[in-house]
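Continuing from yesterday's entry. The apo prediction looked reasonable, so today I'm repeating it with S-adenosylmethionine included to see how the binding region is handled. Same sequence as before; SMILES copied from the compound registry.
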Amino acid sequence: MSASQENPMSTPPTAEQEYYANTARHYDAAYAADSLLTDIPFYVELAKAQHGTVLEVACGTGRVLLPTAQAGVTIDGLDLSSQFLELLRGKLSHEPAEVQARVSLFEGDMRRFSTGKTYDLLTIPFRPLQHLYLIEDQLAAFRCFHAHLKPGGSLAFNVFYPNYARLQEVGVEKLELEWKDPNDPSITVRRSFLRRSVDRINQFSDGEFIFRSYRGSQLVLEERSSLRMGYYTYPQIRLLLETSGFQVREEYGSFEKEPISVCKEMIFVAVKR
Ligand SMILES: C[S@@+](CC[C@H](N)C(=O)[O-])C[C@H]1O[C@@H](n2cnc3c(N)ncnc32)[C@H](O)[C@@H]1O
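Holo prediction written out below.
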């Protein structure tokens, strides 16, 4: 199903679509290996507590959407990447019929989509908002989220706290994750990030994710893919929410619900006014 107003075949892919298409085959294995990624129980509990319908914006391969549907919640998913939605459809096809029946998927852009429905809860797990770099795009997305919520509905999302020390690390390659290739356990994949530049006025950085596959100590494949990532300050998020008709209900600095002042992650649950 397409939720986009445009014909996706007639518009060139965005840089984000290219990045996720190039790296889709690594996504699930990489983040399964990320011990710092502890967000799933938070989003599943929130969805269960809502006792209504949920839309996950930028649902990707269903890392959060699938466990939410498995927990009995009716959930729609929207994503810009047809490759990711295809991976999710593949995983869904192995689920029991009642889980499949709870899920509808839409291909579309969070800045301008319409599923034709309104929801009790809209979630955006794992930082997809960092793919919006212009204030016009950010405002358009938040207004679109608002339009897809029922009166009193909730919006929940997380973005990273801008780690200013790390943003200084331009030209430095950092090893971030390592995992066994699920299709060939003799292969170890290591993912590094090389930050190329930072735009401190517009708040984004450009860099390259480098995936190196090793058999033993021998490098057998190197894949590089560029990605721009925006970053937000706390008052900027508050202002975006305020301007687009939301009131903050909860805010946390980690998925263990530490105060936002711990400056790790910025997690918000806001209510449609
Ligand atoms: C870091 S992944 C998060 C995926 C998923 N929420 C998760 O928790 O694993 C970011 C996702 O944002 C999607 N994305 C990027 N830009 C988008 C846009 N403008 N509209 C909708 N989805 C977008 C990507 O395709 C990708 O699936």
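Comparison notes:
- DSSP finds eight helices and eleven strands in the chain.
- Helices lie at 15-32, 40-50, 65-70, 82-92, 97-101, 135-147, 164-167, 234-243.
Will overlay with the apo model tomorrow.
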